[in-house]
Amino acid sequence: MTGLRRGDWWLIGGSAALTAVAAVTANTPSGQIAPFIAAGLALAVLAALVGRSVEGLGDRLGSGATGVVQSALGNLPELLFGIFALRKGLITVVQATLVGSILSNVLLVLGLAFIVGGLRHGSQRFPAEGPRMVSLLLVLAVGILIIPTITSRLSLPAAAHERVLSDVAAVVLLAVFALSVPASLRRAEGGSEGGRPEGAGEASARWPLWLAVGMLAITGVAAALVSDWFADSLTPALSALHISQAFAGLVIVAIAGNAVENVVGIQLAARNRMDYALSVILQSPAQIALGIAPLLVLVSAGIGGTRLTLVFPPLLIVSLALTAIIATLVVFDGISTWIEGTCLVGLYVVIAAAFWWG
């Protein structure tokens, strides 16, 4: 009747249980580490439930719109965490999380997808036009993002106006994002019949409209609460674990916030659906660069706490630029191999290690 299958019940029940545990640990004396772990796990599962709820709207929105909305709402917990973290002055964590989300998708997740798919199926071919366009868009977005940092590091006259320059860059990025959505919809609709991976209809039952919309609303409220608890628990947990804010944002928070893309993208590659894997994996970092980062810059001006600008530490910017260029290079030929994946994961490990000490 409701279209819920056993896996859906497990996901809803797990989300409710982990959210309850996060609430208890956040509001009772439970140590420094338990609230951090509970809130992080709850945030990851809630992101998965958001994705499943959006799938329930697929028949009403159309496949192209569903893909775009799923990527956007999948980044909702990350946006909410960024807002709460900025209110608490954790700007280093927010900057590292934004860059880390892009790095983890393009290097770690894409690399693992190449490795898994390559070892199971050999060299995999995919239509390069869509991934090429997304990766080029990511390169251009990163180019806009790094301009404020360059002006600051070179002590140019614009360095004295970094907030204004960051606001201008944020508005431009959001405008580019808005203009790119129709093209993304057309690519998604034209990719295949129904615009969904083979077997997707078998894997997920149809949800009634009231259930999908209601679940999205409930999950959104829960994600907001958990994001606040996660931000509250971050500083004490990092002190207890002796982990730097930069490493936590770049690795721990970024991976937790992108749990859906991490799992789904690798699963699709294992099924020899590399075209869909690339769509899932690359869409998220593009939206972070074009949407989440500029939104946080503009929103931070009115929420109190630390004002976010696009002036990032040099190593973050270098890592970001290198990742965007590599993303374009590895998808340009329309062929993926496991050795390419190994190199991507290796680069991610070295970058993460460089931030271990801060």
Q: In percent, how helical is the residue content? A: over 70%
Number of helices: 15
| Major sheet attributes | 2 strands, antiparallel
Question: Which structural class fits the helix and strand makeup?
Answer: mainly alpha
Description:
- The structure is a single chain.
- By secondary structure, the chain is mainly α.
- The protein has one domain (6-354): Up-down Bundle (A middle domain of Talin 1).
- The protein contains 15 helices and two strands.
- The protein has a two-stranded antiparallel ribbon.
- The longest helix is centred in the middle third of the chain and has 33 residues, at 209-241.
Quick description:
This protein has about 350 residues and is an all-alpha fold.
What structural keywords apply?
15 helices, 358 residues, globular, two-stranded antiparallel sheet, mainly alpha, 1% strand, A middle domain of Talin 1, 78% helix
Topology:
Blueprint: H1 6-27, H2 34-55, H3 58-61, H4 63-74, H5 76-87, H6 91-121, E1 124-125, H7 129-153, H8 162-190, H9 200-203, H10 209-241, H11 245-257, H12 259-270, H13 274-299, H14 314-331, E2 335-336, H15 338-354
Antiparallel strand pairs: 1-2
